[in-house]
Amino acid sequence: MVGATKRADEKPQVTYNDHPLYRFQGDKKPGDTNGQGINAFGGLWWVVSPSRTQIIGSGSTSGGGNGYSP
Predict the structure, then answer these.
(1) Closest listed residue to residue 35, CA positions, set 12, 9, 7, 68
(2) 39 within domain boundaries
(3) Taking the mean position of all CA atoms in its chain, how far away is CA 36?
């Protein structure tokens, strides 16, 4: 289910089940889940673990939503 595609700028983009994956700038160390459940850019964003297990985390309390990075 993990794959890759090319973004518009020709750089590779990792995907999961054909959905692009992003890093959340508010997560500074492994295990951080500050991006969990943020409603931004037209939908909810969820944390994915490398082992495909459920991530339990309350997410950000700062209310941010622009902290993603490809």
Answers:
(1) 68
(2) yes
(3) 8
Q: How far apart are CA 48 and CA 16, in angstroms?
A: 9
- Residue 20 domain flag: no
CA 15 vs. chain centroid, Å, equals: 10
Cα–Cα distance between 45 and 43 in angstroms, integer? 7
- What are 39's two structure tokens? 């409603």
Domain encompassing residue 47: 32-57
Average pLDDT for runs of 10 along the chain of length 70: 93 91 86 86 84 68 46
Domain count, the chain: 1
Core vs surface per residue 23-62: b (16+ CB within 10 A) or e? ebebbeeeeebbbbebeeeeeebebeeeeeeeeeeebbee
